[in-house]
Write a structure and sequence with these properties.
Blueprint: H1 3-10, E1 13-17, H2 27-37, E2 41-44, H3 54-70, E3 75-78, H4 81-86, E4 91-94, H5 101-108, E5 113-118, H6 121-129, E6 134-137, H7 156-163, E7 170-173, H8 181-186, E8 191-194, H9 196-199, H10 204-215
Parallel strand pairs: 1-2, 1-8, 2-3, 3-4, 4-5, 5-6, 6-7, 7-8
The site of ligand 3NM has 17 residues, from helix 9.
EC number: 2.5.1.3
Binding site for 2-[(2R,5Z)-2-carboxy-4-methylthiazol-5(2H)-ylidene]ethyl phosphate: 143-145, 175, 195-196
Pathway: Cofactor biosynthesis; thiamine diphosphate biosynthesis; thiamine phosphate from 4-amino-2-methyl-5-diphosphomethylpyrimidine and 4-methyl-5-(2-phosphoethyl)-thiazole: step 1/1
Length: 218
């Protein structure tokens, strides 16, 4: 299977979580539950005042990386290229305020995937020109998981990108629940990226199941 097809498949149910996105269980337990239940990709995103620092941060990343390898699920690192390289991550994800996508692409080469968060058509075009493999588009709806989130973009931007034959796969992020999946996929997205609907669910496995049932209708 080509790298491109692999990526599209991986982006269907993209679980994003750092130690700060804590729910009922400790985050590594939640990650393992989610991997076992069938998420197709994981991004380690350690951010904000409650995030781990130094040795604890690295130990968490190593443990998460190992878990993903055990379940053959691609492992992405948010905004830390050096650590992503050290951990032989499958990819790196950067936001608009992080290191520029073009520089990141140069540092990681072509064997690692690169994702970029965008909030407008213009940012989407730049991400493509800078060498991104996929874009995260958001916030889809209001979110509690990102302090500096922009205003919600809904499915309008996806429909616009589809209309323009935008060449990269897209995922929706921000406030996404299983009920949103059909609208998001109909608008042309390859998948959904989720923090709290899985990490803060009282039953993360059931939540993954609900996402997968919706996704499997497409
Ligand atoms: N990026 P939840 S919104 C990490 O708009 C992130 O780029 C966003 O968390 C963006 O699923 C977001 O809990 C938070 O709403 C997503």
């Amino acid at each position: 299977m080509s790298k491109e097809l692999d990526l599209k498949k991986a982006l269907r149910l993209y679980f994003v979580m750092g130690s700060q996105d804590i729910g009922l269980y400790d985050p590594l337990t939640t990650l393992e539950i989610a991997l076992k239940a069938g998420v197709s990709c994981y991004q380690w995103r350690e951010k904000g005042p409650l995030s781990l620092k130094e040795a604890e941060r690295i130990a968490f990343a190593q443990a998460a990386r190992r878990l993903c390898a055990n379940y053959h699920v691609p492992f992405f690192v948010d905004d830390d290229v050096e650590l992503a390289l050290k951990l032989s991550a499958d990819g790196v994800h950067v936001g608009q305020k992080d290191e520029g996508a073009q520089t990141v692409r140069r540092r990681i080469g072509t064997d690692m995937w690169l994702g970029v968060s965008v909030h407008s058509l213009e940012e989407a075009e730049h991400a493509h020109a800078d060498g991104a493999d996929y874009i995260g588009v958001g916030p889809y709806k209001p979110t509690q998981s990102k302090a500096d989130a922009e205003s919600p973009v809904g499915d309008k931007l996806f429909r616009e990108l589809t209309k323009r034959d935008y060449p990269l796969p897209t995922v929706a992020i921000g406030g996404v629940t299983p009920n949103d999946v059909s609208t998001i996929l109909s608008a042309g997205a390859a998948g959904v990226a989720v923090i709290s609907a899985i990490s803060k669910s009282p039953d993360p496995a059931k939540s993954v199941d609900r996402f997968l049932s919706e996704l499997n209708m497409y």
